[in-house]
Design a protein that fits this description.
heterodimer, B: Rossmann fold, 16 helices, aromatic amino acid biosynthesis (chain B), Trp_synth_beta/beta-like (chain B), amino-acid biosynthesis (chain B), lyase (chain B), pyridoxal phosphate (chain B)
Chain lengths: 273, 401
């Protein structure tokens, strides 16, 4: 299986299973490189369908306190772009099927060298990229190179993305569409179901891609509620909070995987309201 | 039209610098701002309201003052001060705040947010917000709050709410991150007043335009007083708004040399500085591509300067472009050199400049002695130093020394 199709295959499978995919975010290197790799490796078994791996950045402007702290823990532990890619490579030694997308800010990629980064990421087994601060109308060459490298560019749609802009954002989207369900930073209050349902309908008028919903989803109940009308549910801050609160790396791993199991069960629950 | 008056392009780029590298949520907001700003620029009523506030509230035009004693002291070039420190609230910052808060009003926004480093932009924003009846929230790094106590109190007196920012290094860049997080959360009623020529398009161009009143006046005043254009312009640079305001109206005048002065901290070679052009590399932060202080991994590194207002790891994208074009020369001045120039200005001219401004004065001290008296050098006296008394006292080891 080539890497481009891993995301498509997995999202088709969860759809056939009549349930939304669970997308779990962790920050690479949080709280330390070894624990982070352990956490990553255990995610699929705990119930993650797709992994979103954060590339830590000193200035995460779109993130709330949980992911800010998580990024700092990772950076203080010596995490770098190179180490993050190596981590993906080691994950791929044991897992060829779980799609993995990298999420982060443009500067560390730009500094790494965009072309070199895309090549190394593809080689490591990265399936997609979510770059918070790279809008679709800038650096077209980067997007073209990503496509050539077989890496999906996951586009972000937000509550303010409407009309022509929505069309523009979705034009070259691939993999899935990430709906940022609230105006705000990560880890905010959850969205209302009505607002999400309405927007998702609008997004689906312009794309056939699966739509994942993220921002503010913390509990199995939140996930189940949002999962009723989305193709994927994305959880991040609630997971990295497990690392923040844990007293040891082992406890962090255990608590985080426990939370993922709980979320996965919520999405598979057919009798829940 | 010169190549300089046509920048930025439609996407907000000055060459490869600038742009609008922000979260998608903010794109429609900055597009709306851009539309409103374009309309306001051509709206006579807006312009006359702006002119009214500039004259009667800010106190413009600010004098172009010939600093005779300093000129004699150096024994070289004739030195002029563009007296922006005489503006209401004590710096050039208010030129931009007036413009942006009037725009906010025009857009029907009621809540003003701002970031501040030394506090001058915060004070100016708080003042204008009070005057125009808007609520005002200022994000300020905890480190900066400590070294700029008087400005914190000033903002509070003006009715602003100060939110301390402890993330990162607790300085200007962290305050800017936090302001962006506020904006992305409060999208309906909030207007973000950026204090320098940085951030996503249209901010760099818009702030430049509002600050260009400095250069336009200087031009007129110099023609009036000396019958010709100046030979050189000198200004300090954190983000670069006072420098851009002075430089921009002269960019097409080949005979006018321009020098931007970055904060060298302990020296660029020491790694403890805030000189993005002299010691940085291109990257993307706070909505624009520009020169940044960053490590090999693209992580933003701490800036250092004795002056809180220059303590920023980036620089406005137009400066980055002018640097690569070679139109403006960018140099750096250390904490020590700035402090010497600070004291010199106090004693020779009876003017206490801001520590930021002292960096520009230190560059004047380097250049002026070797130049002939006919050389007309304008330094932007961008702010006054009242706010810096504690930092200066600490540096000098007590007020009596």
């Amino acid at each position: 299986m080539n890497s481009t199709s891993r995301l498509d295959t997995r999202l088709a499978a969860t759809k056939a299973d009549k349930r939304p995919a669970l997308v779990t975010y962790i920050t690479a290197g949080d709280p330390d490189p070894d624990t982070s790799l352990d956490i990553l490796r255990g995610l699929p078994e705990a119930g993650a369908d797709i992994i979103e791996l954060g590339m830590p950045f000193t200035d995460p402007m779109a993130d709330g306190p949980a992911i800010q702290k998580s990024s700092l823990r990772a950076l203080n532990g010596g995490q770098t772009q190179k180490k993050t890619l190596a981590m993906v490579q080691r994950f791929r030694e044991h897992d060829r099927d779980t799609p993995l997308v990298l999420m982060g800010y443009y500067n560390p990629i730009y500094r790494y060298g965009a072309d070199r980064f895309l090549r190394d990421a593809a080689e490591a087994g990265v399936d997609g990229l979510i770059i918070v601060d790279l809008p679709p109308d800038h650096d077209q060459a980067f997007f073209d190179a990503a496509r050539d490298a077989g890496i999906h560019i996951i586009r972000l749609v937000t509550p303010t993305t409407k009309g022509e802009r929505l069309k523009q954002v979705l034009r070259d989207a691939s993999g899935f569409v990430y709906y940022v369900s609230v105006a705000g930073v990560t880890g905010a209050a959850p969205p209302t179901q009505d607002s999400v349902a309405t927007t998702l309908a609008a997004i689906r008028e312009h794309t056939d891609l699966p739509v994942g919903v993220g921002f503010g989803i913390r509990t199995a109940e939140d996930a189940a509620a949002i999962g009723r009308f989305s193709d994927a549910v994305i959880v991040g801050s609630a997971l990295v909070d497990c690392v923040e609160r844990a007293e040891s790396p082992a406890a962090a791993r255990q608590a985080l995987h426990e939370r993922v199991r709980d979320l996965a069960a919520g999405l598979r629950c057919r009798t829940c309201p | 039209m010169s190549v300089y008056s046509m920048q930025p392009d439609a996407n907000g780029f000055f060459g490869r610098f600038g742009g609008r590298f922000v979260a998608e949520t903010l794109i429609p907001l900055i597009e709306a701002l851009q539309t409103c700003y374009k309309e306001a620029r051509d709206d006579r009523e807006f312009q006359s309201r702006l002119a009214y506030f500039q004259r009667d509230y800010v106190g413009r035009p600010s004098p172009l003052y010939r600093a005779d004693r300093l000129t004699d002291y150096f024994g070289g070039a004739t030195i002029y001060f563009k007296r922006e420190e005489l503006n209401h609230t004590g710096a050039h910052k208010i030129n931009n705040c007036i413009g942006q808060v009037l725009l906010a009003q025009r857009m029907g926004k009621t809540r003003i947010i701002a970031e501040t480093g030394a506090g001058m932009h915060g004070v100016a924003t708080a003042a204008v917000a009070a005057r125009l009846g808007m609520s005002c929230i200022v994000y300020m790094g905890e480190t900066d709050m400590e070294r700029q106590q008087p400005n914190v109190f000033r903002m509070q007196l003006l009715g602003a709410e100060i939110i301390p920012v402890s993330s990162g290094t607790g300085t200007l860049k962290d305050a800017m991150n936090e302001a962006l997080r506020d904006w992305v959360t409060n999208i309906d009623d909030t207007f973000y007043v950026i204090g320098t020529v940085a951030g996503p398009h249209p901010y760099p161009a818009m702030v430049r335009d509002f600050q260009s009143v400095i250069g336009r006046e200087t031009r007129e005043q110099m023609l009036d007083q000396e019958g010709r254009l100046p030979d050189s312009l000198v200004a300090c640079i954190g983000g670069g708004s006072n420098a851009m305001g002075l430089f921009h109206p002269f960019l097409a005048d080949d005979g006018v040399q321009m020098i931007g002065v970055e904060a060298g901290g302990h020296g660029v070679e020491s790694g403890k500085h805030a000189a993005s052009l002299s010691g940085g590399t291109p990257g993307v932060l706070h909505g624009n591509r520009t020169y940044l202080l960053q490590d090999e991994d693209g992580q933003i590194t701490d800036a250092h300067s004795i002056s809180a207002g220059l303590d920023y790891p980036g620089i406005g994208p137009e400066h980055a472009w002018l640097h690569e074009q070679g139109r403006v020369e960018y140099v750096s001045i250390t904490d020590r050199e700035a402090m010497e120039a600070f004291q010199l200005c106090c004693r020779q001219e009876g003017i206490i400049p801001a520590l930021e401004t002292a960096h520009a004065l230190a560059e004047v001290a380097r250049r002026a002695p070797a130049l002939p008296r006919e050389h007309l050098m304008v330094v932007n006296l961008s702010g006054r130093g009242d706010k810096d008394m504690a930092s200066v006292a600490e540096y000098l080891g007590g007020p009596s020394r």
